[in-house]
Amino acid sequence: RRHRGRLYLEAANADPAQGWSQPWRGEDELLLPRGLGAVRFQTVVGGGLSVRQLLQDGSVIRARSGGERIRLSPQRPSRTLKNLLQEAGLPAWQRERLPLLFAGSALVWIPDIGVDHRYAAQAGEPGVLPEWLRYE
Length: 136
What we know:
The chain is built from three helices and 13 strands; from the N terminus they run ββββββαβββααββββ. By secondary structure, it is mainly β. The protein has a five-stranded antiparallel β-sheet. The protein has a four-stranded antiparallel β-sheet with strand order 4-5-13-6. Strands 1-2 form a two-stranded antiparallel sheet.
């Protein structure tokens, strides 16, 4: 495949990974389906995403479905996932395979983009920093 003047080589069976979801219940690492890798959750205090809020609202990692929005900063309005991924230069076929973390219906983490500031852990509060481990 080619995108913005770059060549990408992919396995012939690299199909879109739509229609999947994995609940997160506080594990340190969550294996994703369809060869998407895993998400590791590094424990931190007073940073990252609030563990309390994530578990309270029921967290799930899933593929995008369309129309998602996230607010990365209190000084900025919410942004569409589509716009953020386009600005990041992520090819369309890779956007479909991106694991996203939701708390309830709110998008709270996009790999390599950021977290929703409204779910940030407060000083002294347990938090997690998600990291997508790609198995490519």
